[in-house]
Design brief:
Blueprint lengths: L4 E3 L5 E3 L3 E2 L8 H11 L3 E3 L7 H14 L9 E6 L6 H15 L4 E6 L4 E2 L8 E2 L2 E2 L1 E2 L3 H13 L3 E7 L3 H10 L6 E5 L7 H9 L3 E5 L8 H6 L5 H10 L3 E2 L6 H8 L8 H8 L11 H4 L17
Parallel strand pairs: 3-4, 4-5, 5-6, 6-11, 11-12, 12-13, 13-14
Antiparallel strand pairs: 1-2, 7-10, 8-9
Helix pairs in contact: 1-2, 1-9, 2-3, 3-4
Bound molecules: NADP nicotinamide-adenine-dinucleotide phosphate (NAP).
Pfam families: Aldo_ket_red
Keywords: NADP, Oxidoreductase
InterPro entries: AKR, Aldo/ket_reductase_CS, NAD(P)_OxRdtase_dom_sf, NADP_OxRdtase_dom
C-alpha cells in the first residue's frame, strides 16, 4: 500500500502527489490552482524563478477565504531559492519576499534550486552578451540562511534540488539541519538509482521532477514512448518517491492524482525498470557545467534501451 503522505525527517508531512507549476503561465495559473484544490491537490511545487508565485499566492488566499474546509494549514507549499540569491543576506531577503507573494506567515518547504550561484543583485539570468555571469557563493552559506528561517518559524522544512551526493553529504556533515527533501529529475528514462539509494540511507525524501519526462521535448519524442501518465506516476510512488507532475488541463490534473486505487504488480514494475538509459532531460551542463559547484559531469554516459 502507498500512503498519500510521506513523513519527512523534520516531522512534517508532505502529500506524495503535488502539482508542478513551471511553465504554467501567469494569467492562467490562478484558475488552475483553484481547480486543482477542488480536485483534491494539497501540495504545490513552486519557485521564485517560475515567475508565477504572486498569482498562486493570490489564488490560494481567495480559495481559503471562500472555503469552509480548506485552509492554509491543509496545503503544502514548496518554493525554491534562485541562483541569484545564494548569499546569506540575499537568501534571507528571498524568503521574506516569497512569504509576501504567498501571503502567508510560513512556507512548508524551501529548497536551494541549484548548488551553483549567479551574480547577485540584478536579473535572474544575469548576462554579458550571451554569457551568464556567475558567483562562487558557497551553497553552505545559503543553507545557513535557510536554517535561520527555520529557527524563526518561517519555514517548516528545508531541502535541496539538483545537488549531487557529495554536496548533500557536505550539508549533512556541516549543517545544523539535515535536508528533508532532495528534488531531482526522475522519469522512465532516468532513474537516478545511486542518488536515490544514498538519500534513502540518509533519511532524505525524494521528489521526482519532470516525472512524465516533460512530454513534447525532442529527446523524449524521439524515443516514441506512449506510456499512460498514471502508470509512470504510480511506478514512482511505489518506489517511495513523491511526484510533482505539471498540468493546466482539468482532465489531466484529475488523472495525475487518481493513482491510489490500483497497484502495479512485480512484473509490471520490472518491465518499467528496464527503460532506464541515463537520459537526463533537464540538462544545463553545456551552459553551467564549468562552475565549480555544478552538480553533474558535462558528459554523461547513456546506457540501456
Ligand atoms: N527543481 C528543478 O530544477 C525542476 C526542474 C524541472 C521541473 N521541476 C518541477 O517539476 C514539475 C514537473 O516537471 P515538468 O513540468 O518539467 O514536466 P512533467 O510534469 O513531467 O510534464 C509536464 C507536461 O506533461 C503534460 N501532461 C501532464 N499530465 C499529463 C497526462 N496525464 N497525460 C499526458 N500529458 C500530460 C503537460 O501538459 P498539460 O499542462 O497540457 O497537461 C506538460 O506539457 C515542474 O512543473 C516544476 O514544478 C523542478
Amino acid at each position: 500500500m502507498v500512503e498519500k503522505e510521506v513523513t519527512l525527517n523534520s516531522g512534517h508531512k508532505m502529500p506524495v502527489v503535488g502539482l508542478g507549476t513551471w511553465q504554467s503561465s501567469p494569467g492562467e495559473i490562478g484558475q488552475v490552482i483553484k481547480t486543482a484544490l477542488d480536485i483534491g491537490y494539497r501540495h504545490f511545487d513552486c519557485a521564485q524563478v517560475y515567475g508565477n508565485e504572486a498569482e498562486i499566492g493570490e489564488a490560494l488566499e481567495e480559495y481559503f477565504k471562500a472555503s469552509s474546509t480548506v485552509k492554509r494549514e491543509n496545503v503544502f507549499i514548496t518554493s525554491k531559492i534562485w541562483n541569484t540569491f545564494h548569499s546569506f543576506e540575499k537568501c534571507s531577503e528571498a524568503v521574506e519576499e516569497t512569504l509576501k507573494r504567498f501571503r502567508t506567515s510560513y512556507l512548508d518547504l524551501v529548497l536551494i534550486h541549484w548548488p551553483h550561484g549567479f551574480q547577485e543583485g540584478g536579473e535572474l539570468f544575469p548576462k554579458v552578451g550571451d554569457e551568464i555571469q556567475y558567483s562562487d557563493v558557497d551553497y553552505l552559506e545559503t543553507w545557513k540562511a535557510l536554517e535561520k528561517k527555520v529557527d524563526e518559524g518561517k519555514i517548516r522544512s528545508i531541502g535541496l534540488s539538483n545537488f549531487n551526493k557529495d554536496q548533500i553529504q557536505r550539508i549533512i556533515d556541516e549543517g545544523k539541519i539535515r535536508p528533508a527533501v532532495l528534488q531531482i529529475e526522475v522519469n522512465l528514462y532516468f532513474h537516478q538509482i545511486v542518488l536515490r539509494d544514498f538519500c534513502e540511507a540518509n533519511r532524505v525524501a525524494i521528489t521526482a521532477y519532470s516525472p512524465l519526462g516533460s512530454p513534447g521535448r525532442p529527446e523524449w519524442m524521439k524515443k516514441g514512448v506512449d506510456t499512460p501518465a498514471q502508470i509512470v506516476l504510480r511506478w514512482d510512488i511505489q518506489k517511495g518517491l513523491a511526484v510533482i507532475p505539471k498540468s493546466t488541463n482539468e482532465t489531466r490534473l484529475r488523472e495525475n492524482l487518481e493513482i491510489f486505487d490500483f497497484e502495479l504488480q512485480e512484473d509490471d514494475m520490472a518491465q518499467l525498470n528496464q527503460f532506464d538509459c541515463n537520459l537526463r532531460l533537464i540538462n544545463i551542463a553545456d551552459r553551467d557545467g564549468h562552475h565549480k559547484y555544478f552538480p553533474w559531469p558535462k558528459k554523461e554516459v547513456r546506457s540501456g534501451s
